[in-house]
UniProtKB/TrEMBL annotation:
Main location: mitochondrion
One Pfam assignment: Complex1_LYR
Compartment annotation: Mitochondrion
Ranges in a coiled coil: none
Name of the protein this chain belongs to: LYR motif-containing protein 2
Keyword hit for Aminoacyl-tRNA synthetase: no
PANTHER family linked: LYR MOTIF-CONTAINING PROTEIN 2
Species per Swiss-Prot/TrEMBL record: Crocuta crocuta
């Protein structure tokens, strides 16, 4: 359980760091609020499989955001 918590916190930090790179202020605020709400809404999840699935989804969304930012910069 401790390791899962560490994974979730690391994912949260990486998402927020990536969001900081978004050039548009309103988009950045929207994404930050969205991320905060998603993590807050799911903080009481205890089912191991559910948590693993949410971490996987979070990582996929992070990769998508990184790809979008990379395309916007090129």
């Amino acid at each position: 359980q401790f390791l899962r918590r560490q994974q979730v916190l690391l994912l949260y930090r990486r998402i927020l760091q990536t969001i900081r790179q978004v050039p548009n202020d309103s988009d950045r605020k929207y994404l930050k609020d969205w991320a905060r709400e998603e993590f807050k809404r799911n903080k009481n999840a205890t089912e191991e499989d559910t948590i693993r699935m949410m971490i996987t989804q979070g990582n996929m969304q992070l990769k998508e955001l990184e790809r979008t930012l990379a395309l916007a910069k090129s």
